[in-house]
């Protein structure tokens, strides 16, 4: 009987033979970074705050007082705060766009074509030592040259 049971059961490992437990989900010696921890705590905080806000905004006063919550802000703020935040964001975007329009020169200004970093095309392209043409240096094309190229394409 003993030989039959031992043939079917798997061999037992002693404690010294058991593999050491490893941490699942964490790579090696390194734990989570600060941004991961702060992100996790922030996401949990947002979910809890949203839940409390929805309960406060929609549950009747009588129910809140039955569960022992007697002090809470006026329901006016349930509409006022999101409205103020939305209006502030819309005004900030409008202000940002307006400041960009003020900072941009008009289309008729030469500052939109030339500035202190503009470089003219070199009239003479130097040859390399073996007589081949080098790659042209980076430069700006004048508006007159662009108009000539476009007029040549149309005709």
How would you portray this structure in words?
The protein is mainly alpha-helical and 155 residues long. It is 50% helix and 0% strand. It has 5 helices and no strands. The protein has helices spanning 2-8, 34-58, 61-66, 76-103, 143-154. The termini are far apart.
Structural key phrases:
5 helices, 155 residues, mainly alpha, elongated, single chain
Biggest sheet layout? none
Task: Give the proportion of residues in helices.
Answer: 40-55%
SS-derived structural category = mainly alpha
| CA-CA gap between termini | 105 Å
- What is the arithmetic mean of pLDDT? 80
Q: SSE order in H/E notation?
A: HHHHH
Counting H and I runs of at least 4 residues, what is the number of helices? 5
Oligomer status: single chain
Quick one: overall form?
elongated
Low-confidence stretches: none
Count the beta strands.
0
Q: What portion of the residues fall into strands of 2 or more residues?
A: under 5%
Gyration radius (Cα, Å) is: 37 Å
